[in-house]
């Protein structure tokens, strides 16, 4: 090698590195490697974002390494907008901001975003000097999101008449609006410690606006806690995919979703093309990770053979369809099935599953699923229309059930109030005097007790175990039932 320049130990133009490869207990190296240093890995970021060094965390804060891996696989970077709908203490937005993306998030409980005193999500960004990339956080859930499906215009395309709108006054063409998000990252709640919830209520009186003494609505207070109603795990996963399909940029927007799995991951969902589904295949990456990224050494991915329905006929290696996929109507899960079968990998006609990674625990595991938004010309419109029609029909039935629940609540409340008055008056006539007053109070208490028993016996959306098969298996110790 002819090096014409001088050797400089400080601030050199080129770095050269020697690697020595030793066998176990060997005195001499087995291999020697000498080469030019092209780039370094990103493992230093794992120590930098270690939860032990972070000023504001909670019990459910995502591990730094997994947060960086998720941000990397969703290709967060400069010039991109990333969103976390289950923000919590902001582990995913922090990781995306580390790679240069502009980030924001939301959560069902605003207290986790606001924090207390100097400990908050915003202060975490100040700690890592990325506060200029943090837009903020707000209270919302996927079923009540204020985010628009289109907001930012794409580059002008004057020669494409189908993608332009003519302004009659100025005689010019405006580009169409595009979905606003480049990446969505989320670790949704698994509903183990408490049942899954979304904003709303099945009780009629909780839908009324309550005013404080000064006339201010109670829901405008900073410490207001909105009512919540039960939510199923399967419905939540489907809502996440629909949310991503509507708001991710076409042909490149990515969704990173963590999903719980009871017990070992089934071989059918991990099988590669051309291999038997009963055999557990070796994991290999479908796409290379970026060189300066921790995912190159810490994550394992498997390619998706046909996770999303397409116009092509399915092959023998395709994973089993999702219960709400266009191939078959929704079915009620059987209790005897495993959680892997009850909640398979969800699919959406407008999303392609690009990566699946697995993290194992003692008796359960969880998957990291990476989806890519398909271009509009590749989305099977018939299957998408059928998917959304079934979804709208189910939402209509749920709304009707909520209305019936509210009507029952109102009728029960009126019966309780009317019964208390008549019962009390009857007791006053019979007993008279002070005893009559006691009889009136006793009559009201009896009616209230009957109302409480009726409310307890009434089913409002199902129990937490009925809505979440993973939660039920979790508290059963994942044993066979």
CATH architecture label name: 3-Layer(aba) Sandwich
Query: What's the multimeric state?
Result: single chain
On the 0 to 100 scale, the average pLDDT is 73
Helical content (DSSP H or I, runs of 4+): 25-40%
Describe the model.
- This protein is an alpha/beta fold and 481 residues long.
- The chain has a single domain (46-382), classed as 3-Layer(aba) Sandwich (Rossmann fold), CATH 3.40.50.
- Helices cover 31% and strands 16% of the residues.
- It contains 13 helices and 15 strands.
- The protein has a seven-stranded mixed beta sheet with strand order 5-4-3-10-13-15-14, with helices on both faces. A two-stranded antiparallel ribbon has the order 1-2. The protein has a two-stranded antiparallel sheet with strand order 6-9.
- β3 (81-84), α3 and β4 form a beta-alpha-beta unit.
- α2 (64-73) crosses α3 and α10 runs antiparallel to α11 (433-457).
- The longest helix has 51 residues, at 381-431.
- The chain is elongated.
- The protein starts with 15 loop residues before the first strand and ends in a 6-residue tail after the last helix.
